[in-house]
Every structure is written in structure tokens, then in C-alpha cells.
């Protein structure tokens, strides 16, 4: 699902929202999540999951082309941990459903 698919779904589900209002709602939510993560905050959406920032330590990596050792600096990366309800919903999917992801793996 892309951002535009999400906007279309939101506009279809809520008849009082036109396409522009749905786009603004999606943009506002995603901007709020991004801004909170940039400030180092943790975001928890019950039943869906939580977003947090993980710190990766500096390490020595390898350039796959030349095999040369490369110093990889420390960094902060966003991390998503699904909630229990989402994990169970995904786990209970039937593998014989004709969904795009099931078709791609077949």
C-alpha cells in the first residue's frame, strides 16, 4: 500500500472527507510521527505497534567490491515493533488467499 492508496482508502471510508482533506490528514499524521522520532521520542499506537529510535554502535565494515575495511560510524535508526493485535492478525492470514503478496511468492 502506498501513501496515495492510504489517502484513497481514508477518503472512501469517511464520506465527509474529500481527497484533499484525506491527503492533509495522512500528511499530518506522518509528519507528527517523523517529528517525534527526530526529537528522540517513542510513539506507541495501541493495537498497532510502536516506533522508537535504536542506536547502532560504530563498527568495521567491508566494501563488497574491493574487500577493503571501512569504518562505519554510529547512527540512530528508526525501528518499528508491531503490537500484539497486529502480529496476531498477520499470523492468522490464510496462505491460500489471493492477495498480491501471496501471488508474488508463489
Automatic annotation (TrEMBL):
GO molecular-function term, one example from the UniProt record: structural constituent of chromatin
Residue ranges, compositional bias (Basic and acidic residues): 85-97
Keywords for this protein: DNA recombination, DNA-binding, Transcription, Transcription regulation, Translation regulation
CDD domains associated with the record: IHF_B
One Gene Ontology cellular component annotation held by this UniProt entry: chromosome
Renumbered residue ranges of the record's region Disordered: 56-106
GO biological process assignments: DNA recombination; regulation of DNA-templated transcription; regulation of translation
InterPro entries: Hist_DNA-bd (IPR000119), IHF-like_DNA-bd_dom_sf (IPR010992), IHF_beta (IPR005685)
Pfam entry (one): Bac_DNA_binding
Family the entry assigns: Belongs to the bacterial histone-like protein family.
Subunit structure of this chain's protein: Heterodimer of an alpha and a beta chain.
Function: This protein is one of the two subunits of integration host factor, a specific DNA-binding protein that functions in genetic recombination as well as in transcriptional and translational control.
PANTHER family assigned to the protein according to its UniProt record, in alphabetical order: DNA-BINDING PROTEIN HU (PTHR33175), INTEGRATION HOST FACTOR SUBUNIT BETA (PTHR33175:SF5)
The protein's name in its UniProt record: Integration host factor subunit beta
Taxonomic source organism: Comamonas suwonensis
The organism's taxonomic lineage, starting at the top: Bacteria, Pseudomonadati, Pseudomonadota, Betaproteobacteria, Burkholderiales
